[in-house]
UniProtKB/TrEMBL annotation:
<comment type="similarity">
    <text>Belongs to the threonine synthase family.</text>
</comment>
<feature type="modified residue" description="N6-(pyridoxal phosphate)lysine">
    <location>
        <position position="107"/>
    </location>
</feature>
<protein>
    <recommendedName>
        <fullName>Threonine synthase</fullName>
        <ecNumber>4.2.3.1</ecNumber>
    </recommendedName>
</protein>
<dbReference type="InterPro" id="IPR029144">
    <property type="entry name" value="Thr_synth_N"/>
</dbReference>
<keyword id="KW-0663">Pyridoxal phosphate</keyword>
<dbReference type="GO" id="GO:0030170">
    <property type="term" value="F:pyridoxal phosphate binding"/>
</dbReference>
<dbReference type="InterPro" id="IPR037158">
    <property type="entry name" value="Thr_synth_N_sf"/>
</dbReference>
<dbReference type="Pfam" id="PF00291">
    <property type="entry name" value="PALP"/>
</dbReference>
<keyword id="KW-0028">Amino-acid biosynthesis</keyword>
<dbReference type="InterPro" id="IPR000634">
    <property type="entry name" value="Ser/Thr_deHydtase_PyrdxlP-BS"/>
</dbReference>
<keyword id="KW-0456">Lyase</keyword>
<keyword id="KW-0791">Threonine biosynthesis</keyword>
<dbReference type="GO" id="GO:0009088">
    <property type="term" value="P:threonine biosynthetic process"/>
</dbReference>
<dbReference type="GO" id="GO:0004795">
    <property type="term" value="F:threonine synthase activity"/>
</dbReference>
<dbReference type="InterPro" id="IPR004450">
    <property type="entry name" value="Thr_synthase-like"/>
</dbReference>
<feature type="domain" description="Tryptophan synthase beta chain-like PALP">
    <location>
        <begin position="90"/>
        <end position="373"/>
    </location>
</feature>
<feature type="domain" description="Threonine synthase N-terminal">
    <location>
        <begin position="4"/>
        <end position="78"/>
    </location>
</feature>
Length: 434
């Protein structure tokens, strides 16, 4: 796989370089030079294949020139040890549950794949790596779990103080070992900015082999495309066109879906659904991209004011907004609308949505209402509702069952290092953590 930078100021790299480097030196994002189309026969038989078989075919088409087939098979089988079922919620409305992994969020797919792929590349080369990751709640814990105890790898997580849920914070701060959590006195955007700055700082990069585990790293996006194919395979028997609604923040998840579409997956439309941090819906609707400070919402993991995958999304459409609009509509919702959706769906069906999934549900409903389409609508449930019990229990007036992997964290001791919202503080931490 050859990858270029969206800023076009640095030479192309192969997959291995892109994975370890994370961010190109010109501050762009790595993009595959060629996105292969899968053969028609694959889509004809897709509903007869397992999740692992589908992922294997997709992955082989993307990275098979650099990673041997046998290795891809073993990576995919190791990563996909849990399901991603499509479940009916209402007439024409289905949910793709992406929260059955170890940290109960869709990030488990990306983080586990990245950890496995890096280990494969590192077998041939001995070097120590520092993974730097900014999180608004879910990426950090998935990455920490994915890299826990991996020899030669240290993980530093930056999370915004008091802006993640209590259980998310437990997940970030209780692992210890090779994982360090930095509690930043700022927003997620501040954490993301500091991480990006570290990749461009020559003193840091000359002393530390830094790598990113955010969706700026291409190896996060590849596995995030697998479940779009698998969801389509599950929905194929319904015989209708398929629309996906993706609750979005940094736009890595939807970007992976758009890559799946480029590979030939017949998706009729994507709905990019956000909370009040509506930078991308505004961009899609007006053509103006204006990053702004994020605001706190009940779908906290989507509180992003400068969506990092914007350059990739526009690159996929040759920077032609009208071409993008043919595939993607943008919708945004307030906390009141989100809470009302959680409540009404629970009352009508018994299904408990988390606030992020609820934003996706709202986007799908609105799109169907305005388009009048008779299609299979699938919204992505990106996290388990128990990760946000303080919000969800209040809305549905009932206690959500807490899965065992969260329950066991409740009494664990949290450990984090508080740092100011100042890049120099991160830099001195990194240089002393060597
Ligand atoms: C639960 C949840 N939903 C949605 C999102 C948004 O996904 P993305 O940043 O890929 O748009 C995130 C964070 O990434 C998340 O943790
Ligand atoms: N919502 C994310 C923010 C980071 O997103 P990423 O997909 O770009 O790594 C989170 O939960 O941390």
């Amino acid at each position: 796989m050859k990858l270029y930078s969206t800023n076009h100021q640095v030479p192309e790299v192969n997959l291995k370089e892109a994975v370890f480097k994370g961010l190109p030196d010109d501050n762009g994002l790595y993009m595959p030079e060629n996105i292969p189309t899968l053969p028609a026969s694959f889509f004809e038989n897709i509903d007869t294949l397992s999740f692992q078989d589908i992922a294997f075919e997709v992955c082989k088409a993307l990275i098979g020139d650099e990673v041997p087939e046998k290795e891809i098979r073993s990576i995919v089988d190791d990563v996909l040890t849990f399901d991603a079922p499509v479940v009916k919620v209402e007439n024409n409305i289905y949910v793709l549950e992406l929260f059955h992994g170890p940290t109960l969020a869709f990030k488990d797919f990306g983080a586990r794949f990245m950890a496995r792929l890096m280990s494969y590349f590192l077998q041939k080369e001995k070097k120590d790596i520092m993974i730097l990751v900014a999180t608004s709640g879910d990426t950090g814990s998935a990455v920490a779990q994915g890299f826990l105890d991996k020899a030669g790898i240290k993980v530093t997580i930056l999370y915004p103080s008091k802006k993640v849920s209590d259980l998310q914070e437990k997940q970030l701060t209780t692992l210890g070992k090779n994982i360090t959590a930095l509690e930043v006195l700022g927003t997620f955007d501040d954490c993301q900015r500091m991480v990006k700055q570290a990749f461009l700082d020559k003193e840091i990069t000359s002393k530390i082999n830094l790598s990113s585990a955010n969706s700026i790293n291409i190896s996060r996006l590849i596995p995030q495309s697998f479940y779009y194919f698998y969801a389509y395979a599950q929905a194929k028997k319904l015989g209708k066109k398929v629309v996906f609604s993706v609750p979005s923040g940094n736009f890595g998840n939807i970007c992976a879906g758009l890559i799946a579409k480029k590979m030939g997956l017949p998706i009729d439309m994507f709905v990019a659904s956000t909370n009040a941090n509506d930078i991308m819906p505004k961009y899609i609707n007006t053509g103006v991209f204006e990053a702004k400070p994020s605001v706190a919402t009940i779908s906290n993991a989507m509180d992003v004011g400068n969506p990092s995958n914007y350059p990739r999304v526009i690159e996929l459409y040759g920077k032609d907004i009208n071409a993008l609009r043919k595939d993607v509509v943008g919708k945004a919702y307030t906390d009141e609308e989100t809470a009302a959706a959680v409540k009404s769906v629970y009352k009508a069906t018994g299904y408990v949505m988390d606030p992020h999934g609820a934003v996706g549900y709202l986007g799908l409903k609105e799109y169907f209402e305005e388009s009048g389409k008779d299609a299979t609508g699938i919204f992505l449930a990106t996290a388990h509702p128990a990760k946000f019990i303080e919000v969800v229990n209040d809305i549905i007036e009932k206690d959500v069952e807490i899965p065992a992997q969260l329950k066991e964290l409740i009494n664990k001791k949290q450990e984090s290092i508080v740092i100011e919202n100042d890049f120099e503080k991160l830099k001195s931490f990194l240089l002393t953590a060597l």
